[in-house]
Amino acid sequence: MSNAKRVGVLISGRGSNMASLIEACRNPGYPAEIIQVISNVPDAPGLEIADKSGISTKAIDHKAYPSREAFETELDAALRDANVDLICNAGFMRLLTDGFVEAWRDRQLNIHPSLLPAFKGLHTHERAIEAGVRLSGCTVHFVRTEMDSGPIIAQAAVPVLPEDTPDELAARVLEAEHKLYPLALKLVASGDARVENDHIIFKNRPALHGAYISPWYE
Ligand code: GRF
Asked: Cα separations (Å) of 122 from 22, 91, 125, 192?
C-alpha cells in the first residue's frame, strides 16, 4: 500500500494551482496523492480538469446552505468520507469559520499570491504595484483563523517590473505559484516540514528552506 498522504483540494474557479498539484502527484515517489477535489462553485472550470484527470470531484454550493457552519459541516463530512489527511486550498474563495480551521489545524494549506504578511486579502497585484514594491511573489502557508496568516511553509519571489500591469504581474506570480505549491506540499507530505511553536521546522534542512527566487532554483 502507498504511504502517500491523501489530499483533498478545495477550489472555487479555474483550478490552475490544483492542476499543478495533480501533475506533481503523477511523479513516482511524490509523497501525496489527490483523492478528492471539492468546489463551492458548481460550475468552476477546475472541476472538469480534475474529472478529466480521473479524480473524484464534488460541488458543494455554499449558496444552498443556510449558514457558513451548515456548508462547512457538509464540506468536512465529504473530506472525512474521502479519508483525507491534508487539505490544499487552491483558489478557494470562501472564508472558513474558526471551527473548521481548528478541526484541520496543521493539516490545511493555502496559497496566496503575495509575499505574506504583505498584501493579505484581494487585489494583491494592484496593491503591490501601487505600493511600488520591487519584489512580489507567492506564499504557501498553513491556515489559521486570521485570513492569509499562519506558519509559512514556502515562498517564491518574482520581480515587479517598472511597466507591469496587474495582469502581467499576476501571470508572473502564477507561474511561480505552479512551482511553489507542489514543492510546499512535498515538504509537508514527506514530513520534511512540520509545525513547532507555530513556525515551520525543516527536518532535512533543504538547501533553500522553502525560499525560492525567480529564475527558479531547484
Ligand atoms: C491564485 O492566484 C491563488 O494564489 C489565488 O487565487 C488564484 C487561483 O487561481 N488564491 P487558480 O484557480 O489556481 O488558477
From this structure: 25, 11, 9, 31
